[in-house]
Structure formats: structure tokens, C-alpha cells
Amino acid sequence: MGFLEKTVNGKTLHFLNTEAFDREDWAALSADPSPARDLCLSLSDLDRLPCFSAPEALLLTSGSLGPSGLAPLYAAKGLKTLVLDYEETDSDENGIHLDRLPALDYVLSRSDLNIYHLSEASGPIIKVHNIWRSGKAVKITLSPGEELARRQYFVFLSTEGEGAAAVKIMEILDPIQTALNEMDKRYSSQLDSIAIIPFCVSDPTVPERRYVSLKKRYADLRLRVDRAGFVRAAPEQRRLLCLEKLRASAVCIAKKDVSFQLEEFLADIGAITGP
């Protein structure tokens, strides 16, 4: 079994990584729940949270919620630390009610949209990497010395994927995100931010999303990457598949936003990634 090391609230935690678990592993855990204290699960595997008896820290990665939705999360009453390492939409069904986790004392999230339903009664320390202007206002509780990272870059890259596919996509996107952050360009006068989130899941019924709102001033593009083909592909082919989705997403934005500097954006992506 592998572990993911992550610094959370000034402490180094080693999260048990369930990504490589197979059917036999899950069957054994169902019969005899593990006492693992720090746990990493994808949203796709959230239904398996009861296989662990008393987790205190939970790292959630991207994926499609199962039949039980967020119910297994809310049943984890002893959870103290929650890390939301994924980008989500601002839909009601996906926002997490932090006040339904009474023992929670620390939350680290990639986006405020993940905690869309945060109520003023919630009391944990909250740190958010990306504050979306289109998101609902939230109450942020900080302890002395804590700083909330309010830096918002124009382009946000992430993925919704399952298992190894999500990891491989982020290995491709992370260097591009870093380079775009360093450039810190705004490619539109009518949008405050754009999210390009290629998704790679086994469920063929999950729809693509091509949302561009000039009124709300943000865009959310989620184009499908064929999971079977992506997993089997060679590394260079996987890279090209991801770049194709970035370019296709940019074209979708340009069709709705005439101020979007499509050619400059594509040229910058090309300069970052090479031919």
C-alpha cells in the first residue's frame, strides 16, 4: 500500500492512497474495516469510506460521485481534517455542507465552489486556493497568523478522472498551469476566469460541459477524454490528447466571447508545451 505525503495546517500527514486498490482489497476491507487515520479517496470511491473505521483526515481527489452522493462523507462524524484536492462546479448537489461535519476543525480546498454551502455557523479554519467571483459569498474563519490565498489566476486547469487516468492527466496539466501562472495574462476583457477541466471517466453518460457566461464573467469547459484509449495510449499520445482538449475548449470560449484572444492563448500553450 502506498502513501501520499502532504503538509496540512503545518503538519506533515501521510495519507493512505487507495488508488491502486483492487476488488480483493476492497472486499477484505468491507469484511474487516481498516483503522487508517489519514486517508486518500477519489470522489468515485467515496461510497467505500465506511471500509475505514475512524478516519481523522480525508484527502478527496477528483471523480464522479457514486449512488450515495456525499452521504458517506457526512456519516464520518469523527473527521477533523478535510482536503478537497479537486475543482468542482457550483451546483447544489456537489457543494459540501461543512456544518454537517461537527468535528471538523480544518479545511483546505482548491476552490471555494467545493464549499458552496458553507454556513455562518461553521467553525473550522478554512484555506482556499482559488476564490471564484461567480461563487456564492462564504464566511472564512481564520486563526491568528493564517493567511487566505486570494490570488486568482485567469486560467485554471484541472481534471475529473478516475484512478491512474486523473494522475496522468494532472502530470500533463500541472506544468502548463505553472507556466500560465508565471505569465499571468488575461486573455479576455469579458471574463474574469476560465476553468478548463478535461474529464476522463468510465461512465459514458456523463455529459460534457461548455459553459461560458458573459453575465457571470466566467467559463467552465469540461470535454471528455476517452478513458479506455487514454489509459492504453503511449505517454506522448496522452499528452497530445490533453492538448487537443485544451485547444478545443479555447475554441468553445472564443465562439461565445469575441474578446477572447484565442490565437495568443494557443500560441502561449504551444510555447509552453512545444510541438
Query: What is the radius of gyration computed over CA atoms, rounded to a whole number of angstroms?
Result: 19 Å
SSE succession: EEHEEHEEEEEHEEEEHHH
Q: Percent helix among the residues?
A: 25-40%
In the predicted model, the low-confidence regions spanning at least 5 consecutive residues are 132-151
Largest sheet: 7 strands, mixed
Share of β-strand residues? 15-25%
What is the typical, i.e. mean, pLDDT?
78
How many helices in DSSP terms? 6
Strand order in space, largest sheet: 1-2-3-4-5-6-7
Q: How many strands appear in the DSSP assignment? A: 13
Number of domains: 2
Q: Given the C-alpha coordinates, what overall shape results?
A: globular
Structural class: alpha/beta
What is the distance, rounded to the nearest whole angstrom, between the alpha carbons of the first and last residues?
A: 38 Å
